[in-house]
Specification:
ten-stranded antiparallel sheet, alpha+beta, Pnp Oxidase, Chain A, homodimer
Chain lengths: 228, 228
């Protein structure tokens, strides 16, 4: 990747993605946004159909400045999105419940990204590349450790790509922010940490003799990664 | 609550919430939908502003057939939603990564709810009730163990309610569903369980002498609950 495209100062802020209420919680640089996108693996896609917004959870992948989404070619969402309508893709990581002494100052520590734009259908060589990126985003190294898709399966799957060009991150960290006077009150204040836990893998009881749990599943973890 | 309103057969299915692609994964009864809503505590709200859909994560609460959302009275989202525009509220619980022998049959075990409708501002006595339900949905018993809101804080907070009348749940459970022939392949198949973990609470170092960690934080857990 060209070094110029990962300049830390590159901003994805627009009037539409600018945080107005708590500007200090906002971030717009690609490095911060990519770290959140790389730690998550489920996004919520918003689109409008017949005047009604829909929000649907789905997996995603990232390759540089491109976000990949996939789904059944027959699905309502994929058919709607492939018409290049305005969409919003949101990824949310929850880090803690924030318990203040006042009920008003309660909060949730979180890191979220909102991306605005349009997605378009991917065909040809880029389609297999994008599906590889998406699969390996969710489980690193998995693409090459499965039966590859047939031509019919490829046709039954739609892949969409969305440029990550208009976006914002919102981040809240740290302890509660109580009003000064409230620290004199005898209520408990602090955080309850929250994380996404991955428990040991469970095989489906139909493994061929000699098939062992792959190392990438033994070591499975998610987190900011420069190289993923 | 009137027993009639919790009849297990009550369906929230409409043409707009009906699952078309995988009808067997769909559920529309209030009991199933409520169990998912009660286990989760973060929803993604979809709304349209100037033709652009936005998807924003936020906390929520439930009281019977009513969903409560709150936020700053000054926020863009709350001001938009209070105009009673069409919205979508989605709650997603992730249970496992599903690793099939074919890349095509990979999936994610999940339980999600999509609610369509409009929200409206709550004022007066119901506002404090709704905020209590919302607070206690996220941390049971917390409302009465904090400094209550002042009049100014109440004005700075908007509460919205949305009837849970048009909705669907989508549920995927179990092992991968590989094609028959693929079970003869030497790839690992099974699931990687995923859950939201809550770690021990951490105080903010500013507790008054004698203030102990409340029992509801020691015992904190989430899950389907008939009585929450």
């Amino acid at each position: 990747m060209d070094k110029l495209t990962v300049e830390p100062s590159e901003s994805l802020k627009t009037k539409r993605t600018e945080l107005r209420r708590f500007p200090k919680k906002g971030a717009y640089d690609r490095r911060t946004i990519n770290a959140i996108l790389d730690e998550g693996f489920v996004c919520h896609v918003g689109f409008v159909h017949d005047g009604q917004p829909f929000v649907i959870p789905t997996g995603y992948g990232r390759d540089g400045d491109t976000l990949y989404l996939h789904g059944s070619s027959a699905s309502r969402m994929m058919r709607a999105l492939s018409k290049e309508i305005p969409i919003c893709v949101t990824v949310t990581l929850i880090d803690a419940l924030v318990l203040a002494r006042s009920v008003f100052n309660h909060s949730v520590n979180h890191r979220s990204v909102v991306i605005l734009g349009k997605a378009s259908l991917v065909e040809g060589e880029e389609k297999e590349h994008g599906l590889t990126m998406l699969t390996n985003h969710i489980v690193a190294q998995r693409w090459t450790d499965t039966r590859p898709p047939t031509e019919i399966e490829m046709k039954a799957t739609s892949l969409l790509k969305m440029p990550i060009t208009e976006a914002s991150a919102k981040i809240r960290t740290g302890p509660p922010g109580d009003d000064d006077a409230d620290y004199e009150l005898a209520y408990w204040g602090g955080i309850l940490p929250v994380r996404t836990a991955f428990d040991p893998a469970i095989d489906d009881g139909r493994l061929l003799p000699g098939v062992e749990l792959p190392k990438y599943l033994v070591d499975y973890h998610r987190g900011p990664s420069e190289d993923r």
